[in-house]
Amino acid sequence: MVIKKEDRIDVDQARSKEDKSRCETAEKSSEIPVPWRIKRYYVYGFATVLTLILPWIQVNGNHFFLLSFDKLKLHLAFIQFDMQELYLMPFLLMLLFLTIFGMTVLGGRVFCGWVCPQTIFRVAYRDFLETTVLGLRKRIKNKQQEPDMTKMENKVKKGIAIALAFLFATIAASDLLWYFVPPEDFFAYLSNPSDHYTLIGTIVVIAAFLIYDIVFLQENFCVYVCPYSRVQSVLYDEHTVMALYDPHRGGIIYDDNHNKLFSKPKELQAAQPGAECAVCESCVAVCPTHIDIRKGLQLECINCLECVDVCTTVMAKQGKPTLVSWSSEYEIIDQKGKTKYFRPKILAYIGLLIFIATILAFMGSTKEHMLLNINKENRLYSISKIADGKVQVDNAYEFLLQNTENEALEFFFEIIPPQGMEGKIIIVKPTQKFSAVPGIKKKKIVVLRTTETLVDDPRKDTVIPITIRAYAVGHENEIFVLRKSTFTFPREDLLKSAK
What we know:
Layout: H1 17-28, H2 36-53, E1 58-59, E2 62-63, E3 65-68, E4 73-76, E5 79-82, H3 89-107, H4 110-114, H5 117-133, H6 152-177, H7 183-190, H8 197-217, H9 220-225, H10 228-232, E6 242-245, H11 247-250, H12 265-271, H13 282-285, H14 306-316, E7 324-327, H15 344-365, E8 370-376, E9 382-385, E10 391-403, E11 409-416, E12 426-429, E13 434-436, E14 441-450, E15 462-472, E16 480-489, H16 492-498
Antiparallel strand pairs: 1-2, 3-4, 4-5, 6-7, 8-10, 9-10, 10-14, 11-13, 11-15, 12-14, 15-16
């Protein structure tokens, strides 16, 4: 929108250097900047496309994120983990919550207005379906005026809007489930619905909840249901960026008890000469959570910045900068100076995020390609007489192995004894490699044997530490695990009695 010359103000009469600078900026600008609302739409579109596409992307058969309770698998950053490796999940949750809390300290409820799925669904329904597509609502900038539902035409449009919303809600519900049931399994299950009532029922329940939320509960979810609005107040500080009305330029519209003092521009001008607020109520009409930003900080504000857009448009017609801006109390209300973005609290959040992300990356990089549990049998050992007056000592174990790769592999074991005992303890069972398919636990009875006198102790049995190395045949250096165990060697008198 072009600013007319006759509408320009004399910047030399601005009440402060800061106001003068803002006015000069407004004069130099020939157009109103791209509204925050449009920028939010771009973010919504990017988030929606990314969320829909991500479950379909696979690298070596692994997904970016998949928590499969069906197959007891966790896929993270295209690496597959077994459910026994869910120790990674707490770190993921810490990253998620620290990111949201850090965003709140820096930009208020910017998560609510720009990323939250509830907001995206609500905006898509109200602004796109009801307003743009069906014309049920007259203007996007007036969110307080509800459609006249006494008219049959509007009732039909409302029904169409709900039907289309249910279609979108079903797609959204399916998309959510794709992070728990991968698409390749999801559609196979749907082709046989009689065996997957739980999956279908879950889709219907989620879609029905979304319809109730975006059509009937609306922004009351943000105001009354979501606990985040209660948490945010303890995270804010004077440098937190949020949508703020400038009472120094616009004038004080409400008293300390939030009672409205003025409803007309003449009343405001008479009481507070020089106040710039037009008392047009445009910022009130456009607010999706039905608040008046001129009252000051309110928990209901979701930082959608639509009040900033509309005030920018109104004030630009007068050649003035907006009275509502995305800034901090330190800069707008207290007028102490510029907002400090990289302050100690923000740097602490960044440091924590980097630290936890590093731990997660390290733990993820040390993923084991198989799971192996070793349990020794109740009998410590068995002693048998062999030729030449020698005896053999056997130790038996139960190995529980699980292949966590995406393909069937063949496995075998080797023994790493203490230094000086190399080659004296051997595997006598199993004698050949064996196959293990992904996701199925394989139980093997393993017998270790020695025919050597490993220890000569007349008083007690000796527990010898050993290491079991299990590996995939043909991938010995890539797919293997090491497990600590023991080999029990009998005392001297038992060996002599067996000879």
